[in-house]
């Protein structure tokens, strides 16, 4: 492989260096393109554009490979736990037992959220979507923790990581408690991180919440599977906002807003709503496949397709297996799971989906497990955000430590040429 790419414009040749990553991915470094040629590239949605080099996550969309810091998602989902994977993503190595214990204890130092934050949540209507409330509360954390994150100071950075991991989980569950008109719960520092999520969500003043290890294990695995996914829409947003040196909370808040979209993290809620609609309409999955294929119909088969995976999404395979196990263990016979499997089977045999390499993605089965665990549909994307939090933190930290420049894409102007101002009376 040559280490130079040659571009010819108007008969003149220009050379640009080629970058090869540790997994042999190839990029053309066009840092000098505009200054040398006057031209820029055009790549709506950045399908062909790399924004950075990164040591955090590697994925191969053709082969269906996903690794965090070199460890396969299959290994981590089976053998690790969410807090350990969070440590791995953020600090780069699997922690020793004492390091993980310290990390968990340091997170516990910051699980109290300023009581005045309750005034903010009280300002929302009961039926406000939890993702909108979460984005606002996350940004509001900046007001109570104004010290901007000085990334060159390891201590400050570590404190910001632990604060974010501790407080985000609590305020995420407050969005549900607000919705239900329940009192807001506090983190219990004697219990584990994922177990706390279920307690924060469902414990009522009338009695203690009884944890089910099957539920905790399933959630832990789901959070691992959502923890990072290189430069997806919401992570790129976190990097972009952080590149202006906005703080960690403000950057994460922007990531929450990006994740909310139904084309991205909001798809897990949209999948369940689609499956329930199919169920309500007699379970006729083929009608929805036809709608998804009809170019006149804006309907897309939610939970199918992916910007990068043009083969199976390895996470979907793991989640589908977990869905069977969790529902069997909990004794849940959910007809929606049957509809999902029929929909998948029909789509994977259908020329339209096959020819476009459309496979189930991470969102297709996750909602079915969340529903079996008693999580309300409107909270599905909030759970995606809880899982993705360590990835957002890790990517933000890497971008700041690497002193990456402020993000500022160019454009090609196609509007009106110069024209003189026209007075109102002459228009
Ligand atoms: C996530 O990027 C990440 O890593 C994201 C994520 C992460 O972990 O962060 O993996 C999480 O966001 C998963 C994706 C969740 N979204 C959905 O499930 C929504 C439904 N999927 C689609 O909207 C779509 O597949 C996207 C947005 C996910 C991907 O869009 P692309 O790659 O831009 O695909 P495209 O728009 O170029 O489509 C190519 C063709 C088009 O048809 P033609 O113009 O060639 O005729 O495939 C069609 C599309 O119309 N198509 C679909 C479809 N997805 C693509 N047709 C029907 N149903 C679909 N779901």
Automatic annotation (TrEMBL):
<protein>
    <recommendedName>
        <fullName>Citrate synthase</fullName>
    </recommendedName>
</protein>
<dbReference type="Pfam" id="PF00285">
    <property type="entry name" value="Citrate_synt"/>
</dbReference>
<keyword id="KW-0808">Transferase</keyword>
<dbReference type="InterPro" id="IPR016143">
    <property type="entry name" value="Citrate_synth-like_sm_a-sub"/>
</dbReference>
<dbReference type="InterPro" id="IPR016142">
    <property type="entry name" value="Citrate_synth-like_lrg_a-sub"/>
</dbReference>
<feature type="active site">
    <location>
        <position position="363"/>
    </location>
</feature>
<comment type="pathway">
    <text>Carbohydrate metabolism; tricarboxylic acid cycle; isocitrate from oxaloacetate: step 1/2.</text>
</comment>
<dbReference type="InterPro" id="IPR036969">
    <property type="entry name" value="Citrate_synthase_sf"/>
</dbReference>
<feature type="active site">
    <location>
        <position position="306"/>
    </location>
</feature>
<dbReference type="InterPro" id="IPR002020">
    <property type="entry name" value="Citrate_synthase"/>
</dbReference>
<dbReference type="InterPro" id="IPR010953">
    <property type="entry name" value="Citrate_synthase_typ-I"/>
</dbReference>
<dbReference type="GO" id="GO:0036440">
    <property type="term" value="F:citrate synthase activity"/>
</dbReference>
<keyword id="KW-0012">Acyltransferase</keyword>
<dbReference type="InterPro" id="IPR024176">
    <property type="entry name" value="Citrate_synthase_bac-typ"/>
</dbReference>
<comment type="similarity">
    <text>Belongs to the citrate synthase family.</text>
</comment>
<dbReference type="InterPro" id="IPR019810">
    <property type="entry name" value="Citrate_synthase_AS"/>
</dbReference>
<dbReference type="GO" id="GO:0006099">
    <property type="term" value="P:tricarboxylic acid cycle"/>
</dbReference>
<keyword id="KW-0816">Tricarboxylic acid cycle</keyword>
<dbReference type="GO" id="GO:0005737">
    <property type="term" value="C:cytoplasm"/>
</dbReference>
């Amino acid at each position: 492989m040559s280490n130079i790419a040659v571009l010819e414009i108007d008969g003149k040749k220009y050379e640009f260096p080629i970058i090869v990553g540790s997994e042999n991915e190839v990029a053309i470094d066009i840092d000098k393109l505009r200054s040398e040629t006057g031209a820029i590239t055009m790549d709506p949605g950045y399908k062909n554009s790399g924004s950075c080099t990164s040591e955090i996550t590697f994925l191969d969309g053709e082969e269906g490979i996903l690794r965090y810091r070199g460890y396969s998602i299959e290994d981590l989902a089976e053998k690790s736990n969410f807090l350990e994977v969070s440590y791995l993503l953020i600090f780069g190595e699997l922690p020793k037992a004492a390091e993980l214990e310290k990390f968990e204890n340091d997170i516990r130092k910051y699980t109290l959220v300023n009581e005045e934050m309750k005034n903010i949540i009280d300002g929302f209507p009961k039926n406000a979507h939890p993702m909108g409330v979460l984005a606002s509360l996350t940004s509001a954390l900046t007001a109570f923790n104004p010290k901007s994150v000085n990334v060159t100071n390891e201590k400050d950075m570590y404190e910001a990581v632990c604060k974010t991991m501790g407080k985000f989980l609590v305020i995420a569950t407050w969005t549900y408690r607000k919705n239900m008109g329940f009192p807001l719960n506090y983190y219990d520092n004697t219990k584990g991180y994922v177990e706390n999520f279920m307690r924060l969500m469902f414990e009522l003043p009338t009695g203690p919440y009884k944890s089910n290890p099957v539920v905790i294990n399933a959630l832990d695995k789901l959070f691992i599977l959502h923890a990072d996914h290189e430069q997806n829409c919401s992570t790129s947003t976190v990097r972009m906002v952080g590149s202006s040196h906005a703080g960690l909370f403000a950057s994460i808040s922007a990531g929450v807003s990006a994740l909310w979209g139904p084309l991205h993290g909001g798809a897990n809620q949209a999948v369940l709503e689609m499956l329930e609609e199919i169920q309500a309409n007699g379970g006729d999955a083929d009608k929805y496949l036809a709608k998804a294929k009809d170019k006149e119909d804006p309907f897309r088969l939610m939970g199918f397709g992916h910007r990068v995976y043009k083969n199976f999404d390895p996470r979907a395979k793991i989640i589908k297996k977990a869905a069977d196990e969790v529902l069997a263990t909990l004794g849940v016979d959910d007809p929606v799971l049957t509809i999902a499997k029929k929909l998948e089977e029909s789509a994977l045999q259908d020329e339209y989906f096959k020819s476009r390499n459309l496979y189930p993605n991470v969102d297709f089965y996750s909602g079915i497990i969340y529903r079996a665990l008693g999580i309300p549909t409107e909270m599905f994307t909030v759970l995606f955000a809880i899982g993705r939090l360590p990835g957002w933190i890790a990517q933000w930290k890497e971008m700041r430590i690497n002193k990456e420049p402020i993000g500022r894409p160019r454009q090609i102007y196609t509007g009106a040429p110069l024209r003189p101002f026209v007075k109102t009376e002459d228009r």
